[in-house]
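Standup notes
- HV: blocked on the assembly model, inputs below
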Amino acid sequence: MPQKRPAVSGSSEVRVCLPAGVALHARPAGTLVRAAAAFTSEIFVSANGRRANAKSILDILSLGAEGGVELVIAASGDDAAEAADQLAVLVPALA
Amino acid sequence: MVAMVEGNGAVTLVLVSHSAQIASGLAEMAGQIAGPGVPIVAAGGAVDGSLGTDGGRVLDALRAAAKGAGAVVLVDLGSSVLSVRAALTELAPEEVERLSVADAPLVEGAIAAAVAASTGCTHAEAARAAEEARGVGKL
């Protein structure tokens, strides 16, 4: 289960792990970016001490996040809670 | 060779390279990242398949892509740019309006444009996404 930490109004942060064996490369990265692009909120993904704009495929690919790594997903904006919730469900289901 | 992957109304990517293998390999890679909804046309190599550009193939690719949601065009170097410019002069104004040529690095630009196209953006927005690739660090 993703651990959720409520933050200030209009921002939301979740921590979720990539499935073992599913790195944030190619197809999974594209899936994440497409999902993030559906929200108006700013969304950032952090892993390995780096932070990437979730709506930029090149940024996400540069994270080099390997399978099993924990991602911190931070959204801020009108639909931040919804974005964080949805991505928290999506990430562990990436294949 | 002009290889077309059918899509569902998203902006098309046209990849113009001196190498047929670069164009088709990049089409495969961008298609995997962006998913099956983005049509990608690889227009690489000279008429006989050697290194070079084929103006006729580029024109055919642009004409085929200048329909529906239109297309973002990515080029590698030199005569790829010239052949796209030449093809644009052959097309009708309403076709040219449906095309955006991205001033962007080919590989990173194609990936960025393909993912942008998969979110349902316009061809101009896909070209902007490709051009943002110039400012994204790799390391």
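- HV (later): unblocked. The mean pLDDT of chain B is 93. Chain B touches chain A at residues 29, 32-35, 108, 111-112, 115, 118-119, 132-133, 136-139 (CB under 8 Å).
- Next: hand off to the docking folks.
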